[in-house]
Amino acid sequence: MALQVGDRAPELLGLNEKGEEIRLDMFKGKKVVLYFYPKDNTPGCTSEACNLRDNYEELRKAGYEVVGVSPDSAASHQKFIAKQELPFPLIADTEHTLLENFGVWGEKSMCGRKYMGVFRTTFILNEDGVIEKVFGPKEIKVKEHAAQILK
Known about the structure:
Blueprint: E1 12-15, E2 21-23, E3 31-36, H1 43-54, H2 56-61, E4 64-70, H3 74-84, E5 90-92, H4 97-101, E6 105-110, E7 113-118, E8 121-125, E9 131-135, H5 145-150
Parallel strand pairs: 3-4, 4-5
Antiparallel strand pairs: 1-2, 3-8, 6-7, 8-9
């Protein structure tokens, strides 16, 4: 059963690009933008990450911290962060644990080909780690995502 609005997110979110644990208690008193994306260094995912990067200070002033999650490896995340100068951590969910808990891992199709992948989704967690809002794949505008969050 996927997590939804009103549910508390798991305390341990996963390991970041440096192999360090990312836990909810690290963000006490702040809201968390937990955004799930399919793959490092792809056009849509890069646009989304750069939009969040470009508006990072504004998001922080509004009380948010940003954490990205994809099934890419820590090494891939390190390169993506360096190349795009991302100021926030990226969780390497290579085992799909968090992706499955949040219900964003599943069957997709492109050009008639079916495959397993990430549904681009953003969860806004309140100061207590409870899911307050969800932006689904059809709602997210990758080049305007920070503005969507700040509305």
